[in-house]
Each structure stands twice: as C-alpha cells, then as structure tokens.
Amino acid sequence: MPGRPPRRRVVFVTVGCLLAALAVGVVGLAAGSSSLTAGDAVRTLLGGGSPGEHLIVVGLRLPRVLGALLVGTALGLAGALTQTFARNPLATPDIIGVTSGASLGAVMAIVLAGGTYQVAAGTLSLGMPAAAAVGALLTALVVYGLAWRGGIDSFRIILIGIGATATLSGVTSYLVARAQITEAANAAQWLVGSLSGMSWSSVRPLLVVVLLVTPVALAQSRDLEVSQLGDDVTSGLGVAVQRHRLLVLGCAVLLTAAAVSASGPVEFVAFLAPQVAQRLAATARPPLLASAFVGALVVAGADAASRTVLPGQLPVGIVTAVVGAPYLIWLLTRLKERETVS
C-alpha cells in the first residue's frame, strides 16, 4: 500500500533520533574535568566502576543529563502539538506566550516566595512547577480567548501571543529589577536557561509530567491528523473540535511549564525540533514522538557541547538560541518567498 513507506520512514526516524539522543546523553555523562570515557560512564551506570566514578556519574552528572533529555523531550513534543494545532510552524510555546507565562510564574516563586535556582527540597520543589504551570495555563487561556473569532486563525493567535510575550517579559524584568540582590541573581541565572543547577529534586517532577502527559498527547495523534483538513471536515468526521483543541493545548502547556520550571526558558527548541523531525520524516505535519526525541537530542547535544567544545560553559539556552534564531530567520524568508510566488 502507498501509505506504508512513509510510516516506515517515520518509525526509522523516531528510533534513530532516540538512539542518537541516548548516545549524546552517554557523551554528556563522560564530559567534564574528570578523565572518564563513555565506556566508563556506561559501566558505572550498569553497577560497575569505583565509588568515585559512581559519585561523579550517578550523583553529579546523571541528573543534569537526564534533565537535558527530559527538557528537550517536553519542549519538542509541546512544539509539535502547538504547531499542528494552529497549522503554522511559527505557533510554538515560545512565540504564543506560554513560555513567558511559565517564566513569569516561576520568577514570582523565586522572587516573591523565596524560591531558589536549584528548586530546593520541600514545598518549593513543588511550588515552582505549580507556579510555572499556573502562569502558562492562564496565558494560554487568555491568548486562546482573545484569538477566538468563531474559530482559531493561526496568524491571529501568533500576533496575540507575541503581544502577550512582550507584556509578560516586561513584568518579569520588573520583578527581577525590584527584587533583592540574591533573588535577582537567582532569577537572572535561571532566565537564561541553564542546566547547571539541575538536581534530582528538579528532575523528578519533570519526569512525572512527561510520563503522564506524553501518552495523552500521543492519543490525540489521529485527531490532530484529521484537524489539518479544517474545522468543518473535522467536525463532520465526529471529532469534538473544541474539546480536542483544549486537550492538545493543555498537554502543551503542562509540558512547557514542567520544562521551564526545571531549567528556565530554553529558547527555540520547541520551534526547531518539530521542523527538523518533519523534514527528516517527510510528513505533512510534525511527527510527535520524533519531535520529542529531536528536542532531547538538541538540548542534550547543546549541553554536552557547552561543557566540552564551547568556551566558558555557556548556558544551554544561549546555545539553542544561537542555533535556532538563524533557522527562524530562514523559515520566515522561505514563507515570504512562497507568498510572493503565489
């Protein structure tokens, strides 16, 4: 049948991206000042190695590497959901305001509630993810409500999201400027998107969200495919359009909030990963699982590069922004050329 080769390609790309992300994760476990090889890291994970190697690999580096993989997975999947939901590659959590809302909520937890950059144990380990989720959810609802005019137009939601992002970023900057020096420094370090403070207390909530939300998101894959045909056709095929959209948007919000609360806003991953996965798989829309694994590969790769190749151990958010911004400019140029031709 003609549909089989594309499905095989999607499976191949998905598995390949997963294996590549895991391989980069192993490199990240070995990267650092100690003279460990990838083989030493794998042997230590399997129960071998000396006590010193176990402390370095499992105690210090594994939370950061696992956090990088989970942050990338959450952002890649969230970007695929929002881009497919709005039928526009520019409709990502970064652009439609969800990331800024999560950032504002988390900064309020740091500045106003005395939170820490490391997402310390106790109530704050749940407080920051909760604050980020509330901020992201409220922003998504406001943007969705303002964009609704008998339906959702992708360019309307993008324009409103850009305005919401600018407003929320201004409020966040005001809170940082008015905070005490310690809280301001913690918030400023967190806002660049860094994995240096990643610990098990910040990885666990993120892992729980990814494990719970991912199956729900994948269950919407068929309806997402149908929704590309337009609202009238989607409704005619028995899909509850508004319920489906709210469920998809809710999944994207929760994934984004969990990622932002753990690492800060890691820019452009939610935009870049689905587009790369779509082109690798040669599909009409971003494949969900492949997008998630490409996101994991991008974040884990950026973190490993910042610790081994790039000078000064740059925060991962800066690395992904440097990579993603030129791609965004290129995509905007391509879209403009298509409009001119048509």
Short précis:
The chain is 77% helix and 0% strand.
Explain the layout of strands and helices:
Blueprint: H1 4-30, H2 38-45, H3 51-86, H4 98-111, H5 123-147, H6 154-178, H7 181-191, H8 200-219, H9 221-227, H10 231-236, H11 241-263, H12 269-281, H13 288-308, H14 316-341
Transmembrane segments: 62-83, 95-120, 126-148, 155-177, 197-219, 246-264, 284-302, 314-333
Keywords: Cell membrane, Membrane, Transmembrane, Transmembrane helix, Transport
Family: Belongs to the binding-protein-dependent transport system permease family. FecCD subfamily.
Q: What are the key terms here?
A:
mainly alpha, 342 residues, membrane, 14 helices, ABC transporter involved in vitamin B12 uptake, BtuC, globular
Taking pLDDT < 50 over at least 5 consecutive residues as the criterion, the unreliable ranges are 115-125
Give the CATH class. Mainly Alpha
Can you count the helices? 14
The count of β-strands is: 0
Spatial separation of the terminal alpha carbons: 33 Å
CATH superfamily caption = ABC transporter involved in vitamin B12 uptake, BtuC
Q: Approximately how much helix is present in the residues?
A: over 70%
Structurally, how many domains make up the residues? 1
- Give the H and E element order: HHHHHHHHHHHHHH
Q: Averaged pLDDT, please? A: 82
Keywords: Cell membrane, Membrane, Transmembrane, Transmembrane helix, Transport
Organism: Phycicoccus endophyticus
Membrane topology: Multi-pass membrane protein
GO biological process, one term: siderophore-iron import into cell
